């Protein structure tokens, strides 16, 4: 593209590239969606899928090259002196179109890649693409295996924590039982201590009763005062 191209020339070139890319994206999308697994009974079943893959890859490279050219044209237009709001609107419009075209290209490429991986995974081991399919399946199985190992390790850690907690609680329970046994032994061995403990408990019970009676009496007096 010559350096002397005017803004109008650049704009026309951008429109031409946009139309060309748009048409190729339609065919590109149909090609990506139309690639199917070859029939298993065919002896030359690798040929249709291979040619389809080659065509898809070639068209992807072609569209990517056109997108790069359109990007350069947009940059050249942005370098031109701005003549008014209409020019700014036109530049923004071309940038938006480039963004939409690039997004559609990436979307079609990504969908095709996902579809191809799914077909490789579902295809039998006797397929002519056994090497790629086995590699893809092996990677998926390894990831699943690692995920299972991680989950198993987390479960084992939780079980170990629960067992440790249970053992700790069991030890505490045994400790309390031993303390209670010793305390009962002391009470039985020394009747004075047992008698003193009983007196203390009796005094606490009596104090609680007295306190309850006082509170009840005060409550009754307050109610009588209020509703008098």
Automatic annotation (TrEMBL):
GO terms under cellular component: cis-Golgi network; Golgi medial cisterna; Golgi membrane; SNARE complex
Source organism superkingdom: Eukaryota
Keyword annotations: ER-Golgi transport, Golgi apparatus, Membrane, Protein transport, Transmembrane, Transmembrane helix, Transport
Keyword Ribosomal protein assigned: no
Function: Involved in transport from the ER to the Golgi apparatus as well as in intra-Golgi transport. It belongs to a super-family of proteins called t-SNAREs or soluble NSF (N-ethylmaleimide-sensitive factor) attachment protein receptor.
Protein name per its UniProtKB record: Golgi SNAP receptor complex member 1
Record text on subunit structure and interactions: Component of several multiprotein Golgi SNARE complexes.
Sample GO molecular function, one term: SNAP receptor activity
Organism, scientific name: Tenebrio molitor (Yellow mealworm beetle)
Family under the similarity heading: Belongs to the GOSR1 family.
InterPro entries registered for this protein in UniProt: Golgi_SNAP_su1
Any single GO BP term: endoplasmic reticulum to Golgi vesicle-mediated transport
Segments crossing the lipid bilayer: 209-227
Subcellular compartments: Golgi apparatus membrane
Membrane topology of this protein: Single-pass type IV membrane protein
Pfam family, one: V-SNARE_C
């Amino acid at each position: 593209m010559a350096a002397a191209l005017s803004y109008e020339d650049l704009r026309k070139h951008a429109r031409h590239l946009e139309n060309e890319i748009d048409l190729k994206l339609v065919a590109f999308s149909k090609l990506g969606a139309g690639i199917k697994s070859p029939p298993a009974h065919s002896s030359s079943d690798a040929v249709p899928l291979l040619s389809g893959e080659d065509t898809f890859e070639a068209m992807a490279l072609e569209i990517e090259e056109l997108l790069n050219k359109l990007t350069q044209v947009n940059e050249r237009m942005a370098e031109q002196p701005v003549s008014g709001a209409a020019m700014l609107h036109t530049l923004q419009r071309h940038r938006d179109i480039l963004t939409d075209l690039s997004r559609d290209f990436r979307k079609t490429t990504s969908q095709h890649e996902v579809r191809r991986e799914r077909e490789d995974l579902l295809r039998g081991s006797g397929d002519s693409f056994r090497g790629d399919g086995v590699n893809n399946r092996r990677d998926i199985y390894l990831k699943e295996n690692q995920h299972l190992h991680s989950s198993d390790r987390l479960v084992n850690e939780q079980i170990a924590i629960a067992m440790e907690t249970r053992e700790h609680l069991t030890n505490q329970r045994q400790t309390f039982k031993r303390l209670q046994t010793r305390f009962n032994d002391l009470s039985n061995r020394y009747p004075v201590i047992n008698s003193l403990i009983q007196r203390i408990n009796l005094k606490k019970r009596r104090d609680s009763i007295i306190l309850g009676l006082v509170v009840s009496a005060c409550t009754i007096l307050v109610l009588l005062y209020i509703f008098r």
